[in-house]
Amino acid sequence: MIDELIGILERENVEWELYWERGRGGSFRIERERLERSQRKFHSGIGLRIGYRGKLGFSYITGLNHDRKTLENFVKRTIKLARISEVPFAGFPSGEKPRPVGGLYDRLIDEIPFEDAYALAGDFASRMVELKGEGITLSGSLAFGVNTYGVANSNGVFLEERSTGMSVSAYAVKEGGRAGTGSYYQSYRSLQPFEELEWAVTLAIEEAELSGAAGKLDGYSGELVLEPEAFGAILGILLENLYGDSVYFGRSRFSRPGEPAAAEGLTLIDDPSIEGLPGSYSFDGEGTPSRRTVLVEEGVLKSFLLDHTYASFLGMESTGNAVRDFRTMPHIGTSNLLVEPGRESLRDFEGVVVKKVFGEHTANPVSGDFSLTVELGYVVRNGELQPFRDNMLVGNAFEVLRSILAVGHETVRRGSFVSPRVLTVARIV
């Protein structure tokens, strides 16, 4: 059907781009160690962008099996939208061939019967009962997915890629006295052994035990360690300023590469070309080949995150960061975000450590001011941990980044974010 749709488009005096997608998934929800819900989902559809006299039109249809009349009407409708559009058109990428990225597809996930996946989720729930301690209740989820997406355009691009995914989560509640909570989430491209599910439960329980024992920390200002999850929240504020559309519309504090962004010890990379990681792909949602992009190097801004449109508007080259589904126009996003490890060992750091925070969506991305609730932290003295929570980590993201004193050498991956611990200066109230 895609070939037939391309044939219809080639008879029109317009520039065009097709994005198609088909996939399926199974998800399983566990509540209080009981498998409560299972669901199967299927999706497919086509997004069409039309460039006409400097303007851009977009529409989509669900499904991949349509008669010729439906396809012709689909094309006519999108051309009509382009004619009345006020959205500027910057062209489509040309046919640069991407290099395949390995480890994106696992046949074991593709071919796992739904009944076997359901049984695995049931075993996951049963193992929760065996692992939980006194006063602990556990919930969680397990999900599998297979997806194929493709891009074709009037510049000769025709690409298609298949991928798989698996995710696991665990959520623990410590009841009695002061309630505590703990959580763990991880995603993968390949089918994982059962031990990985057990690990998720174990870490969630450990965190809930700490949370249940946590009090409130007296006010503190000075050196502290941010674990990867907390540091990721601070980096998220920086990232809002690195999207090409934010730069183009003046919503970023940066205007060009070369400006200082952090302390010399910080190097930040976006890389969709790493084998087997959840954020990896061979080409982005516009067909631009994946590439490793150094965003910040030794504290200096090196690049923005760009799709084809905003790269064109800014007179730069696309970094291949267009993300989308068939129902949406491309927008700019990250792939795998990596904080390059340093040389320091922060494992045995004694002092204040912040593990998890929330509320980063309330921060001002341009000024960098933030006030984040500490979900869990701890003070390390003589090797012993005194947990705390419900304080506020307050300050300015850019000052925190400029105040980095050391970057650890051991990294942790959570989904598509990979980072070590970071020693910096901040304030807790």
TrEMBL record:
PANTHER family: METALLOPROTEASE PMBA (PTHR43421). The keyword Hydrolase applies. Transmembrane segments: none annotated. SUPFAM superfamilies: Putative modulator of DNA gyrase, PmbA/TldD. InterPro entries: Metalloprtase-TldD/E_C, Metalloprtase-TldD/E_cen_dom, Metalloprtase-TldD/E_N, PmbA, TldD/PmbA_N, TldD/PmbA_sf. Pfam families: PmbA_TldD_1st, PmbA_TldD_2nd, PmbA_TldD_3rd. Residues 224-423 form the Metalloprotease TldD/E C-terminal domain. GO terms for cellular component: cytosol. The lineage of its organism: Archaea, Methanobacteriati, Methanobacteriota, Thermococci, Thermococcales. This is Zinc-dependent protease. Residues 16-82 form the Metalloprotease TldD/E N-terminal domain. Keywords: Hydrolase, Protease. GO terms for biological process: proteolysis. Residues 110-200 form the Metalloprotease TldD/E central domain. GO terms for molecular function: metallopeptidase activity.
